[in-house]
Amino acid sequence: MTESIPSLTESSAWKALEAHAATNRALHLRDLFAQDPTRGERLKVEAAGVYLDYSKNRITEETVKLLLQLAEESGLRSRIDAMFRGEKINVTEKRAVLHVALRAPIGDKILVDGVDVVPLVHGVLDKMAVFANSVRSGEWKGYTGKPIRNVINIGIGGSDLGPVMAYEALRHYSQRDLTFRFVSNVDGTDIAEATRDLDAEETLFIISSKTFTTLETMTNAHTARAWALETLKHSGAIAKHFVAVSTNAEEVEHFGIDTANMFGFWDWVGGRYSMDSAIGLSTMIAIGPDNFRRLLSGFHEMDAHFRNAPFERNLPVLLGLLAIYNNNFLGAQSVAVLPYEQYLKRFPAYLQQLTMESNGKHVTLDGTGVEYQTGPIYWGEPGTNGQHSFYQLIHQGTRLVPCDFIAFAQPLNSIGRHHDILIANVFAQAEALAFGKTTQEVEADGTPPWLAPHRIFDGNRPSNTILLDRLTPATLGKLVALYEHSVFTQGAIWKIDSFDQWGVELGKVLAQRIVPELESSKEENLKHDSSTNALIRQYRSIQKEGAK
Ligand code: F6P
Q1: Residue 451: how many CB atoms within 10 A of its CB?
Q2: For 506-545, b where at least 16 C-beta lie within 10 A, e where not — what string?
């Protein structure tokens, strides 16, 4: 039982923000910038090597003051302290939430149930490093004596999205003579395509699953084992070609993987917060242990900033508060994440799980229904590609879509003028969204009056621009931690449990029930609703036809 918590909407800061937003609705970014020529220099924060320009939001200094008051009144400070102290703030699962311990340097002390977990974390990191180095150097041999050339991570959700995002993001730093693939979907196409051109003798599978019971992952793991044994013939080969990353040693053993080849983590690491745990084994093999430690140090730098910086200069707190303002007070339903960095092509997908599995909740910590919107929909694609597909709606559609632009000042592949053109585009988009194009400006271009309405941009569309120097393991760590803590900030203010995920359970249970019904040839009484029953019958009949 959790004790009942005070209503957010009754708090004085919330009420003040509602009144403030109502009067501020008429404000336009054009006017706000015109009235204050230094706005763009003031409404920004620079810390831990991250420059956040939040001046192109529909806010005034008063808005920021009220949002900071909301953070204080919501007890954000004590929630942050509770997380870092290892308190069981994931109340519905009775777990501590300590992804910050995964990147704590040796010497730090973080207790969970009286045990200092920092040495445990470093113990696993050391074991990962030995293994990663032996694969990278070719010292780790497959069953027939050939070195490993291909690494396939099998996992889903947090056990896939973090590894694949990090691999793509840090590909520049990866060992290029190794091939990395990521299999997540239970759709057989995923594993079929991942393995079809590979030699089993040179392939290593990393089975990544916190629980080691996830249907998709275990189905793919068994298929991978059968595929490997088709070539390698002997079950003794499994020890050389399969390793596991999990918290569940019993199930790992049950699958047939020697627990000596298992890399552990703990129940206080949420799946979507696990890319820097042993779940990052594929990342470490790709970029090497030293780069992996640089990634961790980037995470840690942002953790320390989040924990210690005053809220008015705290990057994750500000990012979270602005998201709350746009969502709860301006009615925005989504946030577009737009990295102008091709290597971050999987970052929006990664953020979708981080943000939406964390904050897509309908009750507060005490189980009371919320009276306000919680987690917005996060989505996005890298720039400039998105400009030529969905940006039309962001510029001229009827919905308000706040944007997070992410860019790096230095390219990893310096080719001609590419980078200047890329960055000119990101700055131009934020400018166009904020300031738009007025009727007078359109008419001054010589546009005929009948066409003018189509060419007008209202502007006043909010965006943040996050600028970093260069995409490195450390800056990736900072960026991910920035969003992790922004999610935390939002969840703390909404008073929800950002660390459980009960909403994924029902579909899993129903699927387990439907699988045998699809496979059955008996015309037994289907007990679903009429729509589901009809779909099952239709599927069976198409399957039967196909089998003829
Ligand atoms: O279905 C949701 C979920 O539980 C995620 O939270 C998690 O990241 C994913 O499934 C995978 O879980 P596991 O690592 O236990 O296989």
Answers
A1: 10
A2: eeeeeeeebeebeeeeeeeebeeeeeeeeebeeebeeeee
Task: Read off the tokens for 149.
Answer: 């050339």
Top mutation candidate among 214, 350, 361, 502 for ligand 1, by most atoms within 8 Å of CB:
214
Of 146, 127, 147, give the one whose Cα is nearest residue 137: 147
Which residue in the block uniquely carries the two structure tokens 């779909």?
535
| Token duo for residue 302 | 């942002």
Strands (E), 70-125: 111-112, 115-116
Residue 271 Cβ inside 6 Å of ligand 1? The answer reads: yes
* Cα–Cα distance for residue pair 273/279, rounded to 1 Å: 10
Report how far residue 411's alpha carbon sits from residue 428's, in angstroms, rounded to the nearest whole number. Answer: 18
Q: Which residues 6+ apart lie within 8 Å of 286 measured at CB?
A: 151, 167, 170, 171, 173, 174, 175, 178, 180
**Alpha-carbon gap, residue 409 to 46, rounded angstroms:** 14
Closest to 383 in 3D by CA, of 352, 402, 404, 399: 404
Tokens representing 546? 């196909």
* Mutation test residue for ligand 1: of 90, 93, 97, 159, the one with most atoms within 8 Å of CB: 159
From 222, 254, 508, 544, the catalytic residue: 508
CA nearest neighbour of 75 among 89, 95, 63, 91: 89
> What single DSSP character describes residue 336?
E
What band does 2 get if pLDDT is binned at 50, 70 and 90?
low
Q: Angle CA(327)–CA(331)–CA(335) in degrees, nearest 5?
A: 45
Q: Is 1's pLDDT higher than 60?
A: no
Tell me the per-residue pLDDT of 399-443, one tens digit each, with 9 for 90 and over.
999 999 999 999 999 999 999 999 999 999 999 999 999 999 999
HEC per residue, 165-184 = HHHHHCHHHCCCCCEEEEEC
User: What pLDDT is attached to residue 4?
Assistant: 75
Measured torsion, CA atoms of residues 194, 378, 271, 296, in degrees rounded to the nearest 10: 90
Cα 417 to averaged position of ligand 1 atoms, centre (Å): 42
Confidence of residue 98 (pLDDT cuts 50, 70, 90): very high
Q: Helices 76-84 and 61-73 sit at what angle, rounded to 10 degrees?
A: 60
Number of H helices, E strands in the chain: 23, 13
* CB of 504 shorter than 6 A to ligand 1: yes
- Each residue of 240-295: pLDDT tens digit? 999 999 999 999 999 999 999 999 999 999 999 999 999 999 999 999 999 999 99
Identify the H or E element spanning 340: strand 334-340
What CA–CA distance (Å, rounded) separates 162 from 198? Answer: 24
- Token pair listed for 191: 């594993």
- Model pTM score: 0.97
Based on the residue annotation, tell me whether 357 is a catalytic residue of this protein.
yes
What's the CA gap between 280 and 274, in Å, rounded? Answer: 8
pLDDT in tens, 147-163: 999 999 999 999 999 99
- Cis (ω within 30 of 0) for the bond into 368? no
